[in-house]
Each structure stands twice: as structure tokens, then as C-alpha cells.
Specification:
9 helices; single chain; mainly alpha; two-stranded antiparallel sheet; 4 strands; elongated
Length: 236
């Protein structure tokens, strides 16, 4: 038997759907800024294994020579990102939603089980709950990453005015590196999150839009009243 069950409160859905385009714009505008001084690579010495990002990537996305546009977008939407994130954290603390989101002592073991199951290496599905261990860890990490992005962003945006912060993060170059690594982390989170949503199916996606999901519940059992209480069959 099908039954509707509330899953995500309205506030959580608003925070989620406001954050999604804002974060995308932050990443996009950050890329427009990064193009002007794209120094990061994976390698050692003069050996480069991977470079962020090749010229063909920039040209395909029409990135070159849009530094001013990127900076204006980045510095406007960062305030929306900060306000939305702060309201989200405040809401979870006041409403008690944090109890479903913070990892507990079972979360890391459950996250490992979820990973094995999603990779097809474990047949037993993890327990069905509002947020499994992997989600608790991921969603908490994203909040911490947002806080880290705010600090490192301020450190490289106003390195003179908040010199104490910039120096506390190891200097301008270190803060910029941390900001870049956090951005790459957001991109990886976004890719995994979308894949998980596709895997979970429409019922899960709908719950983030409408707030409810459809669950299967056991059908009601037939009446167990004694035979003497039941009406006697009519005779012909």
C-alpha cells in the first residue's frame, strides 16, 4: 500500500534550491577569475601530470578575457552564498534538523557500506533513513567547506584589510591555494551528488521539490473478530 510521508521541510528545500544556482554561479565566476592567473597543476619540479585547465577548455566555455565580469559576479553572489548558508545553519540549529545531518558514531561505517553498495560490491542495501551515513558526512563537510571558502575568499579579496586572516591562513598564496582546492571539492561533490540523485530515482528527487516521498506500507490485516461475532451466512 502506498503512503505519503513528509521528508524535507519547506525551509530546507528553499535553502537547497537557492544554494544550487548561487553555487554554480560562484564556480563559474571563479573560473573567469582564475583564467587570468591559472598557476595550479599536479606534478613536481618541472614535471606536470595535470594542468588546471587547458586552453581548449577555456575556449570551449568562452572564458578568456572576462576577468572583470567574473569578479563582479563573484563579489555579488558571494553575499547571497554567505547569507543563505548562515540562515541554513541557523535553521538547522533552531529546528533540530541538525540531529539528522551531523555524523554519529555509526556514520563512517555506514558510509563505507553505502559506497560498496553503490559500486555494486555489496548486495545488502544500507538502512533506509532520512540521511544515511554517507549523506551525513557529505552534507556536514559541505557546510564546513562553505565556511572555509568564506574565510579563504576574504583573505584573498582583502589581504590588506584582513591581514590577520591572510597571515593566519599561511599567506596570500596559501589562502588562494586553499580556496582553489575547496572549489574543486565543490565540483566533485556536485558531480557525485547529481549521480546519487539519478541513482536514487524520481521519488527521492520529488521529496526535495514537494517535501514528501511515497513509501510502501504493509496492507491492513483482515478482521480477526471471533466467528460468533460475525453475521451468520443467510440460508437459501
Amino acid at each position: 500500500m502506498k503512503q505519503l510521508k513528509e521528508k524535507h521541510p519547506l525551509a530546507i528545500r528553499w535553502f537547497h534550491w537557492v544554494n544550487f544556482p548561487v553555487l554554480m554561479l560562484m564556480i563559474w565566476s571563479g573560473l573567469l577569475i582564475y583564467w587570468a592567473n591559472d598557476i595550479y597543476r599536479i606534478g613536481w619540479g618541472k614535471t606536470t601530470l595535470f594542468r588546471f585547465f587547458p586552453d581548449s577548455f577555456y575556449k570551449a566555455l568562452n572564458v578568456p578575457f572576462r576577468l572583470a565580469e567574473g569578479m563582479s559576479l563573484h563579489f555579488v553572489f558571494m553575499w547571497l552564498f554567505v547569507i543563505n548558508g548562515a540562515l541554513y545553519v541557523l535553521y538547522t540549529l533552531i529546528s533540530g534538523e541538525w540531529r539528522y545531518l551531523l555524523p554519529d558514531r555509526h556514520s563512517f561505517r555506514e558510509a563505507w557500506q553505502v559506497t560498496l553498495h553503490d559500486l555494486g560490491l555489496r548486495k545488502t542495501a544500507p538502512p533506509v533513513r532520512k540521511y544515511n551515513g554517507a549523506q551525513r558526512i557529505a552534507y556536514t563537510a559541505v557546510v564546513l567547506m562553505g565556511f572555509g571558502s568564506l574565510l579563504t575568499g576574504l583573505a584573498i579579496y582583502k589581504p590588506i584589510q584582513v591581514a590577520w586572516l591572510t597571515q593566519g591562513l599561511g599567506g596570500y598564496e596559501a589562502a588562494r591555494t586553499q580556496h582553489f582546492v575547496l572549489t574543486i571539492g565543490y565540483v566533485l561533490f556536485f558531480v557525485v551528488h547529481v549521480l546519487q540523485v539519478i541513482r536514487a530515482g524520481w521519488n527521492n528527487f520529488r521529496s526535495m521539490i514537494a517535501g514528501f516521498e511515497v513509501i510502501d506500507t504493509p496492507a491492513p490485516t483482515p478482521s480477526t473478530a471471533p466467528a460468533a461475532d460475525r453475521p451468520a451466512p443467510s440460508s437459501i
